[in-house]
Design brief:
The protein is of the alpha+beta class. It is built from 9 helices and 8 strands. The strands form 2 sheets. A 4-stranded antiparallel beta sheet has the order 1-2-3-4, covered by helices on one side. Strands 5-6-7-8 form a 4-stranded antiparallel beta sheet, covered by helices on one side. It is globular and about 70 Å long. The relative contact order is 0.10.
């Protein structure tokens, strides 16, 4: 999820009762909920390094206890106040765990079992940025403040916001369950049809940011990929209406691209790769090999792409990743 969502979730966890466990719980939780995303610094080493390490080592189960300890140490150093380390550590550990837990819900996913496994865990239930979750979090954040203004005007006692925090966290949990139900239904609809006269090898449904009833459907066949950018559960599904993309025939350029550092990093990250081979714009008679990830964007407007350029003799001219 985005870091605004992580931060607001941390504030709600504090209001829900963790602020009674340890002093400065809100500070601890906010720092802890964003600590794993320090791996964004790997982008300084280039896109390939970013794809290799983002949502990997710092998001794993192995790293959680150490990150939680680091957050407590930093808070102790910055705040310069004494507090119970065991209680502060418990609060920090909850905050650290909240980050990969939320990240598991979206298509990007996390590698929870690193370094023992490079397996990605992704439920495909919500987008990296989900408008409804953010709206609920903002509602929980500002409603107690507004009620506090009213209470001060009439002389009533201000509330703590705990009830609202627990209520909204419950609503988000119910929302997640609803997304699970609709996602399961979308996958079942895709998997129950024939495409180009054959049963699909695999199917997937990826969430859209705003409408929980609309998904991006992807179907893989033996020699094609078919994409449904606007799969609505409220409408009759027509498998012939998808955007059809045929897989390219085996070529030496594809195999040469596959062994480059950029493509190896990309293919280890991508769960739904689509290969394309097209003539290059420059130099003349060059060949461009691309692989893009269908979880993000569309083939017409891809968000994650690895590209290699070959000259007319098949010599690699360049390769790289863009996103």
């Amino acid at each position: 999820m985005d870091n605004i969502t992580h931060t607001l979730t941390a504030v709600l966890l504090s209001r829900a009762g963790l602020n009674r466990v340890s002093p400065h719980a809100t500070v601890l939780l906010v720092l802890a909920a964003n600590a794993a995303d320090l791996d964004v610094a790997t982008l300084l080493a280039g896109p390939a390094a970013y794809l290799r390490y983002h949502r990997g080592p710092l998001h794993s189960l192995v790293s959680m206890p150490f990150l939680a300890l680091l957050v407590v140490a930093v808070a102790r150093l910055v705040l310069r106040k004494k507090f119970s380390w065991p209680r502060a550590y418990l609060v920090s550990l909850v905050g650290v765990a909240s980050n990969p837990l939320l990240d598991c819900l979206n298509p990007y996913g996390v590698r929870l079992l690193w370094p023992f496994s490079e397996q990605w865990f992704s439920a495909n239930l919500v987008s990296i940025f989900d408008a409804w979750i953010l709206l609920l979090l903002l509602l929980a954040l500002f409603t107690p403040w507004l009620l506090g203004l009213v209470s001060s005007e009439i002389g009533a006692k201000k509330g703590t916001g705990q009830g609202m925090a627990l209520f909204v966290l419950s609503l988000i949990t119910l929302y997640g369950f609803g997304r699970y139900v609709t996602h399961t239904r979308a996958v079942a609809v895709l998997d129950s049809r024939l495409y180009q006269g054959q049963a699909p090898l695999r199917v997937a449904a990826f969430p859209t940011p705003a409408n929980p009833f609309r998904w991006t459907g992807v179907v893989e066949g033996r020699d094609f990929m078919q994409i449904y950018p606007d799969l609505s559960l409220g409408e009759e599904f027509d498998p012939s209406q998808g955007d059809l993309f045929y897989k390219p025939d085996p070529r030496t350029e594809i195999e040469a691209a596959r062994v480059t550092d950029s493509f190896q990093a990309f293919l280890a990250f991508s769960q739904w790769p689509l290969w394309r081979v097209t003539p290059g714009s420059q130099p003349e008679q060059s060949t461009q090999v691309e692989v893009l990830d269908l979880r993000f964007g569309t083939p017409q407007n891809p968000h994650f792409v690895a590209t290699a350029l070959f000259d007319s003799s098949g010599r690699l001219l360049s390769s790289g990743i863009t996103f």
